[in-house]
Amino acid sequence: MATMTLLKAINNALDQQLNNDKSVVLYGEDAGFEGGVFRVTAGLQKTHGKDRVFDTPISEAGIIGTAIGMASNGMRPVTEIQFSGFMFPGFNQMAVHMARMRNRSRGKYNLPIVVRMPYGGGVRALEHHSESLETLFAHIPGLKLVIPSTPYDAKGLMTAAIKDNDPVIYFEPKKIYRAFKQEVPEEEYEVEIGKARTVQEGSDITVVSWGAMLHETMKAIKELGDDISVELIDLRTIAPMDSDAVVESVKKTGRLLVVHEAVKTLGIGSELISRVNEGAFFHLEAQPTRLTSPDITVPLPKGERHHIVDAPRIKQEIEKVAYFE
Question: In terms of CB atoms within 10 Å, which of 135, 198, 258, 270 comes out highest?
Fold first, then answer.
């Protein structure tokens, strides 16, 4: 076992897969020599060479387009979009070609592509550097989307994503890149894509979150003490979504709160609540609730703390739902 930050765990997974599989290549804007803007890929070019870890022009469409070509010819490209808010020039390639190639070719072509993107706020950056855009990818059939919340999951999900024969969007919550450390196995392992994790069991209310918001939720639960028994679920995979785990939990607790950083309208919370209404309606003792960022563009750094959900607001919302009669 080794003690790693989330950032180091991703780096370790990339290093292992580059070493174990010669079809894996890693590239993006500044992903090579500099190791990325957050240094997630630092040292990998030196270890594996410029032919396998390299920089690209500032062209998100080009990054994804070349990945489609590589993957169609037997390679496993891992691409980096410097911030998720910069992905829009490449979104056409992802939605129109990358997501559809297996269906379009009737299974003749697989596209084992990983698209890495730092996402979310909390680092006092500007709007395109701080958005949470998971809904856009979850809505596209043919794409998988994972968001790790811990170093252990970060390594295991990255390994699984690279080995997957379908395209995987890998969102990296940059607020917690270096926020804490965890013991992580040094050997290769996978965390199954499509399976949520029950962080703690409880009987009064089910709370679902992921990414950086999971840790704000854990702070809120700690502040609650023993007054409310919270079952906390880390969704981990947005698409495919393990809503069965959430439905079964709500059947036990009768109450649901979904906490996410993305804006409210058409967010993942809406989808989860809909599935819980369909699967556990007669078990509900309070209206399913979502706590999200407001439907506005991410503000400038001075106003960011008013925009992003934090532990005090989560604690207040848990109490509201748990005590509803």
Answer: 258
